[in-house]
Recover the amino acids of this structure.
């Protein structure tokens, strides 16, 4: 469900913030000057990512003091820990931008830190503490959702899903407030990504992107996110659904345009995706009830290369008796990129009207039935 795509969003966030991060002679050097407060660690490890690859630098401590350089091309998350494979509770996370020269005092056991030298790093520390409170609360609600699902109590599961959605929206409003009150902050791009989340209104987010400081807009991660915004605009409500063709389970080419004249739920899923499979019964019910009234489903699978049998078995097991296509390319699917699903994650869907225009996005479970019921009023 949403918690899975929420986790994916965080993974994408890290990739966006850390992309193209390594050495560029034109970029100012960033540095961490640190001190451990009564900690016996002889080394500290400074970790980050570049182009999806994780890196770790080490720095020897001298009476608890250490120093590390980073050549950054984006604002990015930097983690400091006392060992190569640290526990989550003994890792501190900083936010740094090109040219930052920060001084960090790390509490005993890496339980916390104080930082000087960067207003954006200090602001991040405040926002991250608030984020953690909400994240811990949402994790507890996730446990309640899982428990309700195991008991088969769908009504209770949806009650907790609504609670989680409310919590997520409150957290997003905090990041929006930061953007409104700190228009010149170097933390703005990070706040924008957190506000946008995995599923966003591209017109709203594009407007906020346009207000970012000019030096942030040219960061590699920022230019990449701008492309995602632009793709999302082309698949927003009111837009004509982009055309594509792909092979069905028998190897025959199928085009989206052949479904003109009907309401089509363009459904992105995969056999390996638990939340997708959990939504299958709702799709089956909707198809059974409305397929004779001018509604159909076109499912696009993001199954992996070489997993065609898994894809076909899942279709059969879940009794999804409508048209299915796949490039068997995982998130490298060109169709997924065309609809920005490689960013938002799955399950995800678009309801397309008989004229080919998108009229709804990301309908979940009972929302599918409710929307179709309003369309096909007897």
């Amino acid at each position: 469900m949403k918690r899975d795509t929420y986790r994916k969003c965080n993974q994408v966030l890290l990739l966006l913030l850390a992309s193209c991060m390594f050495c560029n002679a034109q970029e100012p050097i960033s540095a961490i000057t640190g001190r451990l407060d009564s900690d016996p660690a002889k080394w500290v490890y400074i970790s980050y990512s570049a182009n999806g690859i994780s890196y770790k630098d080490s720095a020897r401590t001298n009476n608890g003091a250490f120093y590390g350089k980073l050549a950054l091309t984006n604002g990015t998350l930097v983690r400091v820990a006392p060992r190569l494979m640290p526990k989550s509770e003994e890792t501190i996370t900083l936010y740094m931008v090109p040219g930052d020269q920060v001084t960090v005092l790390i509490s005993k056991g890496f339980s916390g830190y104080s930082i000087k030298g960067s207003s954006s790093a200090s602001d991040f520390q405040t926002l991250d503490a608030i984020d953690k409170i909400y994240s811990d609360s949402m994790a507890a609600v996730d446990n309640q959702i899982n428990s309700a699902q195991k008991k088969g109590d769908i009504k209770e599961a949806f009650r907790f899903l609504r609670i989680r959605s409310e919590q997520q929206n409150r957290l997003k409003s905090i990041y929006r407030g930061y953007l409104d009150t700190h228009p010149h902050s170097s933390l703005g791009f990070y706040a924008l990504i957190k506000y946008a989340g995995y599923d966003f209104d591209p017109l709203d987010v594009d407007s906020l992107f346009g207000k970012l400081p000019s030096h942030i807009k040219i960061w590699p991660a920022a230019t990449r996110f701008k492309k995602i915004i632009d793709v999302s605009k082309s698949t927003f409500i009111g837009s004509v659904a982009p055309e594509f063709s792909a092979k069905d389970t028998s190897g025959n080419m199928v085009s989206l345009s052949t479904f003109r004249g009907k309401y089509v739920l363009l459904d992105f899923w995969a056999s390996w995706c638990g939340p997708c499979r959990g939504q299958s019964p709702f799709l089956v019910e909707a198809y059974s009830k409305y397929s004779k009234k001018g509604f159909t489903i076109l499912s696009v699978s993001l199954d992996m290369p070489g997993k065609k049998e898994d894809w076909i078995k899942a279709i059969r097991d879940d009794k999804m008796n409508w048209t299915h296509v796949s490039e068997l390319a995982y998130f490298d699917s060109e169709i997924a990129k065309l609809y920005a699903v490689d960013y938002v994650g799955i399950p995800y869907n678009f309801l397309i009207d008989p004229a080919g225009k998108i009229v709804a996005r990301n309908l979940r479970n009972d929302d599918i039935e409710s929307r179709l019921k309003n369309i096909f009023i007897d």
